[in-house]
Amino acid sequence: MLWREHSTKMLNLAFRMLKDRDRAEDILMDVFVGIPDAIRAFRGQSALGTWLYRLTVNACLMKLRAEKRHGELEELNLDTIVEETLGKQEAPRNDQFDPELLQLGLNALPAETRGMLWLKDAEDLDVKDLAEIYGMPDGTIKARLSRARHFVKDYITEKLKNA
Asked: Does domain 2-69 bear CATH number 1.10.1740.10?
């Protein structure tokens, strides 16, 4: 039942964070295998789906940290990216919209931020749920989402300007 109801959304979240289907599937399996041990920590203060998202996010972040320690991955810092691309222009027109460019902008975000955006915009979770999943105050979540959206907008605008 848990698998049927939550696995697709958890896999999508892991894929958005890791940008690799095989690694996302591995994370999904690790999370589901670990549920019997982790269930003892579930206090019922949040919805089961929110708790499963939290397990998925934590597993992805641990995987990314391990890969970074072993030199397999270079994590981008959002502040650095924003500072380097501050040449703000007006938003691109609809006739200029390129889904591939959007994906490139999203991929340039740190995995954690990319996951937040995915959960907020694609899975329609509210800020309160995101705050619980990521263990951050609501205001921090709102600020990160706003900065991420501005970064992606600026990224697309800059690429279109240079095209």
From this structure: yes
